[in-house]
User: Fold this.
Amino acid sequence: MIVQRMRNALLFLALGAASGATAQTFDGYALYNLSNQTTSRLVNAAGQVAYTWNCPTTYSYSMALKPNGNIVRTAVNTGNQINTAAVSGLVQELNPQGQVVWSFTYSSADYVTHHDMCLMPNGNVLLLAYVRKTVAELQALGYTGTSAKYPGRIIEIQPNGSTAQIVWQWEMADRFIQYADASKPNYMPIAEHPERMNINVTVSGGGGPGGGIDWFHENGIDYNAELDQIVFSARYLSEFMVIDHSTTTAEAAGHTGGNGGRGGDFLFRWGKPANYGVTGTQRIPAAVHDVKWVKAGAPNAGWLMFVNNNGGGNSTTTIDAINPARDGYNYPWTPGTVWGPTNYDWRHTCLAYSSGQSAAERMPNGNTFVAISGQYMYEVNSSNQVVWQYNAGPQKAFRYLCSDPGIIALLGEDPCGLVTDVNEEDNNAAFGIYPNPTEGMLNLVGVDMSTMDHFVVFDGTGREVKRTAPGWTVDVSDLPNGVYQVAVEHSTGRRDVRRVVVQH
Assistant:
């Protein structure tokens, strides 16, 4: 481990914290907040802090930037009665001045929110929670252990004035089956029901019969609006699961209903086949964090991506992605076999190791952003060359493009300085380009073709990447995804400029 840290330190010194030389293909900003601190920061490609929120509460684990420039942020509630890993109990929306827009507390002697959150497109927020269950309650369900546990809960909250209200709920306890006592509920062969959770499953870490109260240690959550599904990761299970969000809360407690027709049962699970009684290779050997769907516009869009903390073995963290087979809203499974794929479909081997937290994101231009907890943040291109690195090791960090509405709301119409070399008086108001974003072909309007010399495209650093003869259309399909500066140069010396997003 010491040798690994020395190697990482030398690599970091060689690259620099975030030098201009390595920042050329880093499009946008990284948002982060160190745990147990009150300051949230937005860092640009040059490693400069471009925006700061001085928050009224201590940060817990996760946050997100809204299109209006506000942030939603988990925080540590004062007076939590349940205190275990990454407990928060509080989530708040803050405006750009750090003032509270709304605040929601979910903390009692029987439950508390913890770890991750997910901001949904409709403005609602998904939260993970611990739920206290007594040993008597669990043993009545066929549990063979002798200690109380905290099985997981997922709640969806909807902002309502100065607070929020729960509008949907899912319980891990509703998934429990057992094959230990035929006189108790949900007695069924484990290997025949991977859509359910074995209440006596053997787990790593503090969970399991006779182990610690933190049972499965759910730690990451994401939402897919197109499928109306939720995915969450569980460290002590070395696994992640997909569930149906299209259900009502009542349907989520049962086994029918929703788009998938299976109520709250698992639609898919992956990482450790032994958890559902099937023989197969365990592809997540230890902890797992930050599971999410790769966003539209990025390579491998729609795949499930996650931090595999020891995926490479010998203290080697990897970012893995899989592309599971799907039939409509369901994921086919053959009884007695491993829920496929049998191995990862894509992998990035991280520059540093972490046994916990951490986060990653696939970017539209093919880059991969990684935040290694306790180490540093960095980004590599499709050739695994480091294009950006920053000396901060938050538990999680979040990437936003220059074109993101939240970034523009905070920093203005040109947040990455793409058109700062253009004099406003020289910029033709009639000039336009469409569609924007574009998949490849741009159309021009409002151009004086009699004086037009060239059509020129510059990348985010001002480097010329395309120059063509005069025309009403320009093909940019050969350019990587990203934000570009588009200019029409005239023989009169005039230059008309617009910004365009290329998104294949």
Observations:
- Helices lie at 2-15, 135-139, 249-252, 405-411.
- The chain is about 5% helix and 35% strand.
